[in-house]
Every structure is written in C-alpha cells, then in structure tokens.
Design goal:
The protein is α+β, with helices and mostly antiparallel strands. Helix content is 14%, strand content 25%. Strands 8-9-10-13-12-11 form a six-stranded antiparallel β-barrel. The chain is globular, with a radius of gyration of 18 Å. The termini are far apart. Bound molecules: 2-acetamido-2-deoxy-beta-D-glucopyranose (NAG). One of its GO terms (biological process) is proteolysis. It comes from Aythya fuligula. Pfam families: Trypsin.
C-alpha cells in the first residue's frame, strides 16, 4: 500500500500532457514507472526526463521536506531579484526579476493542471511574508521558450510578463544576465524556498561550482543528456543540492551577481554525485530573452 501511495504522488508531480495519464505512460517521463527508476539507478537514463520528477512543480499534497539540501538561510533580502511563482497560493517555483514587468523562470514550471491562477510574489524572505516589502502580481503573458522540449528538457525557460510594474525598493530589484558562459570551476550560487511545509520557511541559499560539461555528459554522469545550452553544477559542500521547488531559481555568478542559468532538473536522488543538478543557460539563450523582453510573445494561456 505504501509503495502504491507514493507512486500515485509521484504521478501527481509530473506535468500532464494534453492526453492525460494514458499518454504519459507511453511518454519518456519514465520516472513514474518502476522501469524508469531502475533505468536511472543503472546510471543510464534514456533522457534527463527519465530521471526527473524531482524538480517538477509539486502539488499542494507534496509531503516531504524538499528545499535546498545542505544550504543555509539567506540574509533577508540579500537577493532582492528572487521571486516566488505560485499557483493557487502554493509555491511552485523560484524565478528572477529581470525587468520591471518580467520574471525569468523554467518552462516546466507551468504545466497544464495547475491548482489555480499563477501569481508572482516579489520582495519575500519568508515564503508567507506579506506587507510593505512584498508585491504580488497576476501574469499578463507567459512566454515559454518555443523550443522547450519536456523530454530532453532542452530550452527549459519561461518569461512571465507581470500584470503591472514592480516598484523598485530595497527588497525588490532586478538582476542582469551574465555576459559570458561561466567556465568549469566558477563559483556561483542558487537560492530557493523549496517546498517547505513550514509556513515560516525562509529563503535558503547554496554555494555551488560549475562542472565541466563534457564530463557531466559522459556515460558515468548524464550519459549524453546534457545539451550545449545546459550548465551542470554541484554543491561546494558534500551532499548539498537543490531539489523540487527550487526549479526556476536563477543560478547566479560573478560580482555583482548576474544570471548564468535557470534551475531545470536533477536526479530523483538529489545528492547523487553522478547526477548533478542542471540549469538551462541564460547566456546561451540571451537572444531569445532579449527579443522577448522587447517584443513579448504570442499570447499563451496559463
Ligand atoms: C552530450 O552528448 C550528446 C550525445 O552525444 C550530444 O548531442 C551533446 O551535444 C553533448 N553535449 C555537450 C555539452 O557536449
């Protein structure tokens, strides 16, 4: 019974294709099937998506503690670009404020069966903070990358146009995109709220280092699942890793910090050193980002 219950929960976490559950079994989102997990444990996922699950937006029934592992609480408002993307009042993903009306997050954050209207909250430290430091916005337009592929997780980016402009303050400020792709060994960091059960949950942060993409792509690691526009990284302390609700959070590097990428996927066992977390490169998609910020995109239903 236990096993079946947890399998059911896992299915809830997966993005549902238009055809619903039937189609899903045939799809590459193999993590939901026992074969899928076996495949992953042998170290040879058919695609990153086959070992995914961990970072898909949770349902409000998500039960385990799923925040950044081995991180520490961020200094309040030290990352004023961090936003919480919420659906029906539940945190589903992190994101970065890149302009007064635009947030950069991951495409897989917006799945068809959301629990309610999507909203972006800026200026938070504790997830349920409200009041003067925070502002909350509905979404005017959602612009997923047109070539987002939920099987390979390529181009896992989403720009959300807010219903109004953010008023800048000490707690609400934009962040720039990094100019160059960070080299292997670059020190970066990632913050997120995870999927906290504790309503007082505060923003956690994690120091990470960029990994060599070729190594990360080899047969011991992600076995060909790393596209040239992905960035592999690892926690600088053993066992430290982002998990579920940290999807969409910006990977930031440099001084002043700028966005190198957007948290996309990791293994269902986040501490597995051979399946390091992977971000979508923002630098590698700069043209699409800049064009979308200038001109918007064809209207998509959220
Ligand atoms: C990883 O391997 C795949 C398959 O061989 C290849 O298509 C892809 O370009 C490689 N990625 C990198 C970053 O070299």
């Amino acid at each position: 019974m236990e096993a079946r219950a947890s399998l059911g929960l896992l299915l809830l976490l997966l993005p549902l294709p238009s055809g619903g559950l039937g189609e899903q079994h045939g799809g590459a989102v193999g993590v939901s099937s026992p074969q899928g997990s076996a495949e992953m444990e042998s170290g040879r996922p058919r695609s990153p998506a086959a070992a995914l699950g961990a970072l898909f937006p949770p349902s409000s029934r998500g039960r385990s503690r799923l925040g950044i592992i081995g991180g520490h609480e961020a200094k309040p408002h030290s990352r004023p670009y961090m936003v919480s993307v919420q659906s029906g009042g539940v945190h589903i993903c992190g994101g970065a404020l890149v302009q007064q009306r635009w947030v950069l997050t991951a495409a897989h954050c917006i799945v068809r069966r959301l629990k309610g209207p999507v909203k972006v909250v800026v200026g938070l430290h504790h997830l349920w903070d409200r009041g003067a430091a925070t502002q909350s916005f509905a979404i005017r337009t959602a612009c997923p990358h047109p070539n987002y592929n939920r099987k390979t997780m390529e181009n896992d980016l989403l720009l959300l146009q807010l219903s109004g402009p953010v008023s800048w303050s000490r707690t609400r400020r934009p962040i720039a995109l990094l100019r160059r792709e960070p080299k292997a060994g670059t020190a970066c960091s990632l913050a997120g709220w995870g999927v906290p059960r504790d309503p007082a949950a505060a923003l956690q942060e994690l120091e990470v280092a960029v990994l060599d993409a070729r190594m990360c792509n080899n047969s011991r690691f992600w076995h060909g699942g790393i596209a040239p526009t992905m960035i592999c990284f690892q926690g600088r302390h053993r066992g430290a890793a982002p998990t579920k609700g940290d999807s969409g959070s910006p990977l930031v590097c440099g001084q002043p910090a700028a966005v190198a990428g957007v948290m996309s996927f990791s293994s269902a066992r986040p501490e597995d050193p051979l399946k390091p977390p992977v971000a979508t490169s923002a630098v590698g998609h700069k043209k699409w980002i800049q064009r979308t910020l200038r001109r918007g995109c064809p209207r998509t239903r959220v």
